[in-house]
Design brief:
By secondary structure, the protein is mainly alpha-helical. It is built from six helices and no strands. It is elongated.
């Protein structure tokens, strides 16, 4: 006979599942702003963890607020990272040209010229309302 695996003292599996969901979703949101593709993958993991935590918390008679919060935050991170990844893929050629230009830019004015070329290339490819939404932030 084997003994069942028990949770650490003072910690229930349902509670740890809820906390895992919220922490993964917060990490996914942070990763979205640093590396959108990694944020996309992390958001999927967080969403699955949140969905799996819901029945565990309900069966244990615990509040599902942490799991719902994790699902909400991971859904937001998933949407943001999907949009950012899509934008990166759509502007891949322009961004590659920008990076090549920046490799040879030795002065601040040369770097500014590289950005101006990137902005002009993006303006030709994107609708004007998207550019206004994005502003003039350098890549």
């Amino acid at each position: 006979m084997s003994t069942p695996v028990q949770a650490p003292a003072g910690q229930q599996p349902a509670d740890s599942a809820g906390r895992r969901a919220i922490w993964l979703s917060i990490a996914a949101l942070a990763m979205t702003f640093m590396l959108p593709l990694a944020g996309l993958v992390m958001a999927l993991f967080a969403l699955v963890a949140g969905i799996r935590a819901l029945p565990q918390l309900k069966s244990a008679g615990r509040s599902t607020g942490v799991a719902v919060g994790g699902i909400t935050i991971s859904s937001i991170a998933l949407a943001l990272s999907a949009m950012a990844t899509g934008m990166q893929l759509y502007l891949m050629d322009e961004y590659s040209a920008y990076q090549e230009c920046m490799k040879g830019a030795g002065t601040v004015s040369a770097q500014g010229e590289c950005f101006a070329q990137f902005r002009d290339a993006a303006q030709r490819k994107l609708p004007s309302d998207v550019l206004q939404l994005l502003g003039t932030v350098q890549p």
